[in-house]
């Protein structure tokens, strides 16, 4: 099936402002979807039934349920089903994850065949019911995501995967590099050098993928790490500033407030109140 995804795709946001998670049932329709991208969140699709094709960054995957698909921020995709799909769609932001899970995400393939699906879809149904109960139990949601990401890694290790090398490949490589080096390297030029491209080309790739600059991607990763420490540990703010390689606490506080409109202390209080 030939690729027909154009290179200039608008970004859609299916996650409402302020939310970090959405769990829903897969729409049970065969009508082909139009190409679209997601900027700031990850997407896991778990299909119990369905057949057809899923096109991701100009690579066509045949849908053979049971199967899971993983979409990174910035990737372009569309569906073309030949039979009714049934399953679950999970949208989530990185701030909901355990730190180790963030590292795992950057190494997951786009398509993963699913084994022992009966047990898995029972757990997915429980996750969906938990989410629909509308009780903001973020720790429980994090635990479900941790399990599902671990299962994806297990499935991927036991099966073949197809690498994605579409128009957003530079951006995806950049995201992986930032995840590995953001503590000590906060300048786009460093990553452009590793990718053997100019800083301008790196900025252009980021803007095409998620409408953000290369510097914004680094800042978001630093901010996420700060949020993880603030919400998940009792470390003093000064110690967190040091871990994140800020020269002192005031610089970290200024950075954090600039991006969140909250001081680190105020964010920690809000995060603790939600637990």
From TrEMBL:
Residues 172-270 form the HTH araC/xylS-type domain. Keywords: DNA-binding, Transcription, Transcription regulation. Pfam families: HTH_18. It comes from the Bacteria. One of its GO terms (molecular function) is sequence-specific DNA binding. This is Transcriptional regulator, AraC family.
């Amino acid at each position: 099936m030939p690729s027909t995804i154009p290179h200039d795709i608008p970004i859609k946001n299916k996650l409402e402002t302020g939310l970090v998670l959405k769990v829903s049932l897969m729409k049970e329709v065969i009508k082909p979807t139009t190409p679209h991208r997601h900027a700031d969140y990850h997407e896991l699709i778990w299909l119990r039934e369905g057949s057809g094709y899923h096109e991701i960054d100009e690579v066509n995957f045949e849908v053979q349920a049971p199967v899971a698909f993983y979409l990174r921020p910035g990737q372009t995709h569309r569906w073309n089903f030949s039979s009714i799909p049934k399953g679950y769609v999970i949208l989530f932001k990185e701030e909901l994850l355990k730190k180790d899970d963030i590292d795992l995400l950057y190494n997951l393939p786009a398509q993963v065949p699913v084994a022992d699906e009966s047990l898995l879809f029972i757990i997915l149904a429980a996750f969906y019911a938990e989410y629909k109960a509308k009780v903001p139990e973020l720790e429980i949601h994090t635990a479900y995501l941790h399990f599902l990401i671990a299962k994806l890694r297990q499935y991927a290790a036991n099966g073949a995967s197809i690498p994605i090398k579409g128009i957003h490949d530079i951006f995806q490589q950049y995201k992986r590099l930032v995840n590995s080096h953001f503590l000590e390297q906060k300048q786009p030029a460093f990553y452009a050098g590793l990718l053997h491209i100019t800083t301008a080309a790196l900025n252009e790739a980021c803007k095409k993928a998620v409408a953000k600059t290369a510097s914004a991607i680094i800042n978001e990763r630093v901010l996420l790490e700060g949020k993880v420490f603030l919400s998940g540990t009792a470390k003093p703010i000064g110690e967190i500033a040091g871990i994140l390689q800020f020269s002192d606490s005031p610089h970290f506080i200024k950075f954090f407030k600039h991006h969140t409109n909250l001081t680190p202390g105020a964010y920690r209080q809000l995060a603790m109140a939600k637990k």
